[in-house]
Specification:
mainly alpha, Methane Monooxygenase Hydroxylase, Chain G, domain 1, about 85% helix
Amino acid sequence: MARDEFHKQLSELLNKVLVMGSLVDRALDKGMQSLVERDGKLAQTVIEGDAVIDELNYEVQDEVLKLLALEAPLAKDLRVIVSVSSVMIDLERMGDHAEGIARLTVVMQDEPLVKPLIDLPIMASKARDMLRDSVEAFVDADPEKAYAVNAADDEVDDLYDRVYEELIGIMVDDPTTILPATHLQWVSHNIERIADRATNIAERAVYSATGVYPRNMDVSNY
């Protein structure tokens, strides 16, 4: 394969990472909108749309294997291609978490809200920012932008802890709220996992660009 053709295919791979990031971003946005508005039909579109995210992941993984087999890339090109595979896996899992929020919305449609939905949308907004920034940092080979994602993760973790403690307090005060409060805890957990996976992608962005794994980024490998 000519080098120009190789780099064209590599550029197309990175464009598909951007597309995947956009799909997941929209899934999380619609999943949270369905929760806030108690909109089961909107939630169902998120659930059904997860198949598109899965299919794009499979497609890119196949293309990664073909490039590795046919071109045997070295140095930075090899790091980028291998990292594309890892990033796509994290994005696919983020899509699963967004789908999880939508499925919880369907379950919760007839349940009373045990607390106002204030912290959870803020968490989701921050997680979406992290998702977009980490994907852009990876595609643009921008380590500085990648490191900034880690600081945002601390904010999401703080909100997660606050929501968890508040919901535990609600359950202790009124045991009849245990089920709906638990469902909200699961929503917050899904958002927190999306933020952690954005941090995974940020770590990959640093490695892909520099060849060195960052040692001071708290990256989850769950």
